[in-house]
Amino acid sequence: MALFKYSQFLNETEGQPDIVLHAPELPSLKAEPARVELQIPKKPTFTCPDDHRRRSIIATVIFFPMGLIALHWSKKTHERHAANNKVGAFSASDKAKTFSFLGIVVGIVFWIAVVLVALLELVINI
C-alpha cells in the first residue's frame, strides 16, 4: 500500500521542477573565538567535618557489625572532603555518627543481655 502511494506521488510530481533550498550565508568570524577555562580548586574550600572515627572504633569493639558500618562512613567523610564535596562529606559524617551511636547502644544492650543470661544459667544450675 505504501509503495503504491509512493509511486502515485512520483507520477503526480513528474515534470514539475525540483525545489532546492539554499541556506543563507553566515557572516564569517574574523576574530578568534574566546577560550573558556574552568578553574577547579584542588584543595577543599571548607574544613573537614568530624569523622567520629574514635567513636566508630569503640562501636566496632563493642558491636562489630554496626562498628564496621560506622568506620566505612568515617572513611567516606575524608574521601568526600578530599573531593571537595561539602554536602557528601557532612552527610557521611552524620551517618558515621549515627551508626557509631547505634553500635554502642546495641552493643551495650547485647552484652548486658549476655551477662544476664550467663548469670541466670549459673543460678539455675546451682
From TrEMBL:
Q: What is its main location?
A: membrane
Membrane-crossing ranges are: 56-74, 99-124
One Pfam family, short name: CD225
Q: Which InterPro entries match?
A: CD225/Dispanin_fam (IPR007593)
Mention any one GO cellular component term assigned to this protein in its UniProt record.
membrane
Entry keywords, A to Z: Membrane, Transmembrane, Transmembrane helix
Subcellular location per the Swiss-Prot or TrEMBL entry? Membrane
Family, according to the entry, reads as follows: Belongs to the CD225/Dispanin family.
- List the protein's name: Uncharacterized protein
| Species assigned in the record | Holothuria leucospilota (Black long sea cucumber)
Q: What is the lineage of its organism?
A: Eukaryota, Metazoa, Echinodermata, Eleutherozoa, Echinozoa
